[in-house]
Amino acid sequence: MENFYDIIIVGCGPSGMTAAIYALRAGASVLIIEKKAVGGQASLTPKIENYPGFNDVDGFVLTQSMLNQVKVLGGKICYASVEKIIS
């Protein structure tokens, strides 16, 4: 059986996860497709000093917190490569 989603996001970095969180809160079903690892470059950054709400935060901790929020809201993550996008 196929799964259908209202929104499919390519990339599970901070921008993709933020988009997913807003969409999930609005009631959409969301799938994020990620090729490698969650968090992108931010997850590899030991000290992020320009993120609202924190004086500084470890990038891995921040992106894992974002991922947890996506999952709690019902978002799904798929690890795969996107080869083609058809609208």
Topology:
Blueprint: E1 7-10, H1 14-25, E2 30-34, H2 59-72, E3 76-79
Parallel strand pairs: 1-2, 2-3
Structure summary:
By secondary structure, this protein is of the alpha/beta class. The protein is built from two helices and three strands.
Structure characterization notes:
The protein is of the alpha/beta class and 87 residues long. Helices cover 30% and strands 15% of the residues. The protein is built from 2 helices and 3 strands. It has helices at residues 14-25, 59-72, and strands at residues 7-10, 30-34, 76-79. Strands 1-2-3 form a 3-stranded parallel beta sheet, covered by helices on one side. α1 runs parallel beside α2 (59-72). The protein is globular and about 45 Å long. It starts with 6 loop residues before the first strand and ends in an 8-residue tail after the last strand. 21% of the residues are buried. The mean pLDDT is 94.
Number of strands: 3
SSE arrangement, N to C: EHEHE
Main-sheet strand order equals: 1-2-3
| Largest sheet properties | 3 strands, parallel
Share of helical residues: 25-40%
Rounded mean pLDDT is 94
Return Rg in Å: 14 Å
Shape: globular
Determine the structural class based on helices, strands and strand pairing. alpha/beta
Helix count equals: 2
How far apart are the termini? 22 Å
- Poorly predicted runs of 5 or more residues: none
Beta-sheet strand percentage? Answer: 5-15%
